[in-house]
Each structure stands twice: as structure tokens, then as C-alpha cells.
Design a protein that fits this description.
binds iron/sulfur cluster; 19% strand; alpha+beta; 7-stranded mixed beta sheet; binds FE2/S2 (inorganic) cluster
Length: 564
């Protein structure tokens, strides 16, 4: 441990701690623009200036000690940046001296010289570091008499990111993120002095699958999301902690909503899952929840047509349709997008109907070595734990075969489209019973005998286990549309029609019963899962937290470049 005096108080920090982090831990937050703890530190914005000193050495080359037995500090006459310096033994730091205050005011004045007065129309307003630090260190008036430098506005850097060069404070966070985390060296500065602008290298575009993280880390409103810009002022957004369900990584997120409309998803820091990042594919994959393809009302087939009905009648009709079949004539097509609670109830329904043909539909896509997993189902591990999915997909094959041979007479689809997993329209049309629980209309819906509209990931509560065995909780950010009901409630009611009262009144009851039946959940409750999740399974091949190996390399490189 290293002894450091911060604002007059001696503290200890582990060797290698950044000075800016040490000051923050000691309660002396240092404003910063270019520093980001997951990126290298070029030290180019100068906002983090502090007053620094080293132990005063005596004639015997040993530190001179004061009355308190601690080293006396020899303060340097010039300020130092705290973001590119590590703590050192006997170091003294002042984050609140008049000199530091004056430095911050000076840096702010320089940064604002050419900055446009865009706040009223800037998407970053409300979460802009320039605004925030202006309150503390900005001048009321401008001493700048010349004309501001005009720079390009509304530049499409890529398909999802728009740049306003006039707002850029040249912190280089976006350049470093692209190079160090996204491994796509696409951005850079050109020209000199106050004419320097950020741009994409010739012939390149910022179009990698992580491009929107540059918008998150841009401390000002220079980089904006083309999808979100001008849609909503950020202070109107309600923020709900959740996670992305578009692949098995389960990146932690904050969902920004207003009046039951989702406006954006942004990553939430969790070093065990996604570091500070998420991919563009997952981030933007929420529009379907607001599409006009949503199923709004329960429907049952009457006189050859699907007709709206009440929930009670729809559930009774499911029970009536299935009653005439043996377990071996029924198949359940479950989904790796279901929560653990829904899977638990589905497996209990399968047990009560003596159904053996139950499986999830594998969903694969190209992955990368940053975050995106090849497994696009968010809860494959939950399905394995609940014993509703075989590893080989053998049961899915049996379901297809059973439907083809006519052995399976009733199919229950829970959030999956059978036409996308090897069952054709003729086979579906021949099935006497096809029950659908889902959220979106698709080409298999016209064959349904009963349709039960359910909710999407941002509309419900429940848990999932990501590809690394981490248990995480979804929280509802918006209400579902129409008469759509929470999936666990639909499954609970169905279970009740098959096997009588089941003592389940809330989703907490489902989790409690699940934790009594599945040893891995023992001792847990849904509410007790923290916002950062809980490690449930220990999967051998689990690599380190995404982004962290890159950061390790970054730190190593920094140490080589700036030896302490
Ligand atoms: S666009 Fe934003 S993140 Fe990039 S250099 Fe400019 S201010 Fe920094
Ligand atoms: S990596 Fe996976 S979990 Fe993370 S944002 Fe992308 S799709 Fe979602
Ligand atoms: S935060 Fe230290 S120089 Fe920018």
C-alpha cells in the first residue's frame, strides 16, 4: 500500500492506483473530460489539474518528518494532471486549493472559447460535463472578442452516429474507444490549433457494432445517436435498470422511457458482464416492442376465424382443446428468450400433461471477441437448468418428426415461430391444436387455434442466466399494450386449469417454488438479486469480463509509455 496525503489527510492506496481515482475515493472528486477509467490516459484536456508535491528530502536523503511524524511535502510550483499519474509513496495532493480552482476556471474558459451556444438544441443538455463544470468553474461573461471558429455540423460519421464538430472539445475518448475496445481504428483529428476537427480516416466510416458507445462516452454533445437525437430531452426520461436480451451476454442496461414509450437503452457498468459497453445491435433492438405487429387481444378460433375473446375464455379453451390428447400427442416449443420463472412454469405444465416433447429453439448468429455472443438466446443456461432444453437439439428434431408423422396432434408455442424451425405451413395447418403465446404477429399466427398475447423484456419482471452463468433480473420499464398479459401469469393460469390451485399469486412465489425445486437457486429470492446480478453457475470456459483484457493491455502499454 502507498501512503498519500490528499487535502491534508494521509490515506493508503494500492500501488498502481490512478491519482484521479485516489482523489475520488478520498472524497475530492476531480473534474475530467478526456480521462475514462477503461481507456488509456493521454492527458490532453487538462481539466484534472491538481497541486502536487513529493516528500521533502533532508541532507541524509531521507524524507524530513513533521510534528505528526509524517513526511513534509515539497509542493511543486506548477499544477499537474491527475489522470496520467499513479500514486507514489509520500505524495501530497491538493484538489481544492486556490491554484487548482484558478486552473479549472482557465481550462473551462479555453474550452468554451469556440464552443457554440447550442445547449437549448443539444441532445447532451442535461447530461453534459461541459454544462456541469461550467456551473462550478465557468465565467458568466466572455472575454473573447473574435469570431468563433466555424466547423462542420451534422456530419454522418456512420450509419448510427452523427457528429457536430463545433461542440467537440478534442478529448479523444471516441478515438481511443474505437482503437482500444472496438478494435476499429477509424477516427482521428486533422488540422491544427483551433481548427482541429474530429473525422473518420479517409475511406472509413464509424460503422462497427460498438459505434454508439462513443456517444455514451463523449463528454459533450459532439457525438449523438442518430436514432435518439431530437426525440426526447433526457431529463424527462424515466430510467429503469435492466439488461439486454438480444444475446447470451446479457449486457447491463438502463432503459430510458417516457409515458410507456422506450426512447433509448444505454449500457450500465458491470465488470462481470459488459464493463461499460454494449453493442449497437442489442442497444437498438427494442423497436419491435412498439411496433404495430404487437398482439393485443386473446383470440380463439370460432367458425374458422380467430375471434377476440376474454382471457378467461381463452384459457378455458386451451384446457378444453388439450384435454382430448395424451401427453405423447402434445409438444411444447419453448423459447430461450423466456425468463427462468416462465421456464419453470412451462416445465410444470409439461409435467402435469405428461409431455416429454419440450425444447427451446436454438438461435445462433455471428459473435465477436468483445461482447456479442454467438448464442442469441439470452437464457439458454436457464433452459438447461430447468431441464427443458437438451444440448443437442434432439428433442426439437423429435418434435419436427412427430408433427410430420402425425404423432403430435397439439403444439404449444411459447414465443417461437414454428415456421422458422423446420416445421412447414402444411404441417401446421394439419395440426388440430396449435396454441400460441407470443408478442408479435407472424406468418404462423393464422394457423393458431388460440392466441395468448404476452409481454416483452422491457415490460416484465423475471430472471435469466447469461452465458457465463450470471443470474440477472429484468425490471419492467413500460406497461404492455392492449390486453397483453405477463407471460408468467398466463402460464400460472394454464397450470391452474390443468392441475388445480398452485399457490402462486406473485412472481416472487414462482421464484420461491423454483428455488425449492432447483438446487442452484437455493437461498435466493427474486428481490435479493442485486442490480449487478449474482454468479449462479461456474462455467469453466468463462473468459474474463468483456473489455477488461483490453484494458489490461492498455494499462501495460501506458506503463511502458509513461514509466512512473
Ligand atoms: S467527439 Fe466527443 S468524445 Fe470525441 S473527441 Fe470530441 S468531445 Fe471527445
Ligand atoms: S453483446 Fe449481446 S447482450 Fe450485449 S448489447 Fe449486444 S446483443 Fe445485447
Ligand atoms: S482528464 Fe486529465 S487531462 Fe483530461
Amino acid at each position: 500500500m502507498i501512503n498519500v496525503q490528499i487535502n491534508g489527510v494521509w490515506r493508503q492506496f494500492p500501488k498502481g492506483t490512478r491519482l484521479i481515482e485516489a482523489c475520488e475515493q478520498a472524497g475530492g472528486y476531480v473534474p475530467r473530460y478526456c480521462y475514462h477509467k477503461k481507456l488509456s490516459s493521454p492527458g490532453n484536456c487538462r481539466m484534472c489539474l491538481i497541486e502536487m508535491g513529493m516528500p521533502k528530502m533532508g541532507a541524509d536523503r531521507k524524507p524530513e518528518l513533521g510534528h505528526d511524524g509524517k513526511p513534509l511535502i515539497n509542493w511543486m510550483p506548477r499544477p499537474q494532471i491527475s489522470c496520467a499519474t499513479d500514486v507514489a509513496e509520500g505524495m501530497g495532493v491538493r484538489t481544492n486549493s486556490p491554484m487548482v480552482d484558478e486552473c479549472r476556471r482557465g481550462v473551462m474558459e479555453f474550452l468554451l472559447i469556440n464552443h457554440p451556444l447550442d445547449c437549448p438544441i443539444c441532445d447532451q443538455a442535461g447530461e453534459c460535463r461541459l454544462q456541469e463544470f461550467s456551473v462550478e468553474y465557468g465565467r458568466q461573461d466572455s472575454r473573447f472578442l473574435e469570431n468563433k471558429v466555424k466547423k462542420p455540423k451534422n456530419v454522418e460519421l456512420g450509419p448510427r452516429v452523427t457528429l457536430d464538430d463545433e461542440r467537440c472539445i478534442l478529448c479523444s475518448r471516441c478515438i481511443r474507444f474505437s482503437k482500444e475496445i472496438a478494435k476499429d481504428d477509424v477516427l482521428g483529428f486533422i488540422d491544427r490549433g483551433s481548427h482541429t476537427v474530429l473525422t473518420a480516416h479517409p475511406g472509413k466510416r464509424l460503422e462497427n457494432n460498438y459505434s454508439l458507445n462513443t456517444v455514451d462516452i463523449c463528454p459533450v454533445g459532439a457525438l449523438t445517436s442518430s436514432d435518439f437525437r431530437f426525440k426526447m430531452r433526457v431529463w424527462f426520461l424515466k430510467e429503469t435498470k435492466s439488461f439486454c436480451t438480444s444475446c447470451a451476454t446479457g449486457c447491463n442496461t438502463v432503459i430510458g422511457t417516457r409515458e410507456d414509450v422506450i426512447y433509448r437503452q444505454t449500457p450500465r457498468e458491470n465488470d462481470a458482464v459488459n464493463s461499460c459497453w454494449m453493442c449497437d445491435y442489442g442497444r437498438l433492438n427494442f423497436g419491435y416492442l412498439q411496433s404495430d405487429r404487437r398482439l393485443l387481444d386473446p383470440l380463439v378460433r370460432q367458425d374458422g376465424k380467430l375471434q377476440p375473446t376474454s382471457w378467461k375464455h381463452a384459457l378455458e379453451s386451451v384446457a378444453a382443446q388439450l384435454r382430448s390428447f395424451r401427453g405423447s400427442q402434445i409438444a411444447i416449443l419453448a423459447s430461450g428468450r423466456m425468463t427462468n420463472e416462465e421456464m419453470w412454469l412451462a416445465s410444470r405444465i409439461a409435467n402435469s400433461l405428461s409431455v416429454n416433447l419440450i425444447d427451446i429453439v436454438p438461435r445462433l448468429g455471428p459473435g465477436d471477441d468483445i461482447l456479442l455472443s454467438e448464442d442469441r438466446n439470452p437464457n439458454t443456461n436457464g433452459a438447461r437448468l430447468m431441464r427443458i432444453a437438451s444440448d443437442s437439439g434432439a428433442v426439437l428434431q423429435q418434435i419436427r418428426g412427430g408433427i410430420g408423422s402425425g404423432q403430435v396432434q397439439a403444439l404449444i408455442s411459447l414465443g417461437e415461430n414454428p415456421l422458422h424451425c423446420g416445421i412447414n405451413a402444411d404441417q401446421l395447418a394439419r395440426l388440430p391444436v396449435y396454441i400460441v403465446m407470443g408478442l408479435l404477429a407472424n406468418d404462423a399466427i393464422p394457423f393458431a387455434s388460440t392466441l395468448l398475447p404476452s409481454l416483452g423484456f422491457a415490460e416484465k419482471r423475471g430472471s435469466m442466466i447469461n452465458g457465463k452463468g450470471r443470474l440477472q433480473r429484468l425490471n419492467p420499464a413500460v406497461r404492455g399494450p392492449g390486453q397483453a398479459r405477463d407471460d408468467w401469469e398466463i402460464l400460472r393460469d394454464l397450470l391452474q386449469t390443468f392441475s388445480g390451485s398452485n399457490g402462486i399469486y406473485t412472481i416472487e412465489d414462482v421464484f420461491r417454488q423454483m428455488s425449492e425445486g432447483v438446487p442452484a437457486f437455493a437461498g435466493l429470492t427474486l428481490s435479493r438479486i442485486s442490480d449487478l446480478g449474482a454468479q449462479l453457475l461456474h462455467i469453466d470456459e468463462t473468459p474474463g469480463p468483456p473489455g477488461e483484457p483490453a484494458q489490461q493491455k492498455v494499462r501495460e502499454r501506458e506503463r511502458e509509455t509513461h514509466p512512473q
